[in-house]
Write a structure and sequence with these properties.
The protein is built from eleven helices and six strands. By secondary structure, it is an alpha/beta fold. Strands 1, 2, 3, 4, 5 and 6 form a six-stranded mixed β-sheet that branches. Strand 3 and strand 4 form a beta hairpin. Helix 4 crosses helix 6 and helix 5 crosses helix 6. The chain is globular.
Length: 288
């Protein structure tokens, strides 16, 4: 899911010159990335120093608010793009940051290209390939067998829930009652112990399929013999054989609080998706 940094050289309090990048290399350090992140959104300081780079510091919060991720995660995404040969031809690190900032705020491309000092066509040409490349990392990062991480020989390794994302009006088949408009529906499964996203299935039309139908069409058939998932009562039709639900007759009242915590964490994951405005707002671009 994932921007750019516009770099300028500042001298004698003069306006920055666009398209001049202090870091031409594609292997920036953590300190380099913090400075890039500040300059791309208008913090044109001539200082090469940053504040504390620890998690939770003002520098860290500033970067996360601007680009949706910590510097460490951005650098790891860059490394994975390199390792798996997914970097767009001629791709540069600042273009990855363009893509992240675009997805974080989902402002019109004309507005962002002006902010970054780039021609709109050039901005689109260089930014979108990184979004597509990041999406390809799904197959390297979201791994179904990661549900075994921390396994303590329990029969329930995953929590499962669905989430919707808004799109422009298409047809009644895409109508979602959650926000009374068209959307796309995805099934997401998390490792209960570690929180790893281990499974994503979709998109589906919310007006045609419900949670239980999607579960039966995909994830249920991938589970080991005797394996179950933790889910809400929307999956009651497959309880208790394949699902543990709150109101299932075999549900253990003593574990009610623990089960609630598992489902609450899953809701937190779904909420974090919507911290990216490209996923929270109506998606304006082509979904084909």
């Amino acid at each position: 899911f994932q921007l750019m940094f516009l770099f300028c050289t500042i001298s004698n309090n003069m306006a920055p010159k666009r398209h001049e990048y202090p870091y031409s290399k594609n292997e920036p350090s953590i300190n380099d990335v913090y400075l890039l992140g500040k300059r791309i959104i208008g913090c044109h300081s001539s200082s090469s120093k940053t504040g504390k780079l620890t998690i939770g510091s003002s520098e860290d919060r500033f970067f996360r608010q601007s680009y949706g991720l910590s510097v460490a995660v951005v650098l790891e995404a860059w490394r994975l793009l390199q390792v798996h040969n997914l970097l767009p031809d001629g791709g540069c690190f600042y273009q990855l940051l363009w893509a992240l900032h675009f997805m974080k705020y989902y402002e019109p491309e004309l507005v962002l290209s002006a902010r970054f000092g780039a021609d709109p066509k050039t901005f689109r040409k260089q930014m979108w390939p990184f979004i597509h490349a990041l999406s390809e990392l799904e197959y390297q990062v979201i791994i179904f067998d990661n549900r075994y991480k921390g396994d303590q020989q329990h029969d329930c390794l995953l929590s499962v829930d669905g989430t919707d994302f808004r799109i422009n009006w298409t047809s009644k088949a895409f109508y979602s009652h959650k926000f009374k408009g068209c959307g796309l529906w995805y099934e997401v499964a998390l490792n209960i112990l570690t929180g790893d996203i281990c499974w994503i299935n979709g998109p589906f039309e919310p007006g045609k399929y419900n949670d239980l139908m999607i579960f039966r069409m995909g994830l249920m058939g991938e589970l080991d013999e005797g394996e179950r998932v933790e889910a809400d009562d929307g999956y009651l039709g497959e309880a208790p054989l394949h699902v543990k639900c709150p109101n299932c007759l075999t549900s253990d009242p003593a574990k009610k609080k623990l089960k609630s915590r598992v489902r609450s964490r899953h809701e937190t994951c779904n909420k974090r998706f919507k911290q990216w405005k490209i996923l929270k707002e109506v998606y304006r671009h082509n979904i084909a």
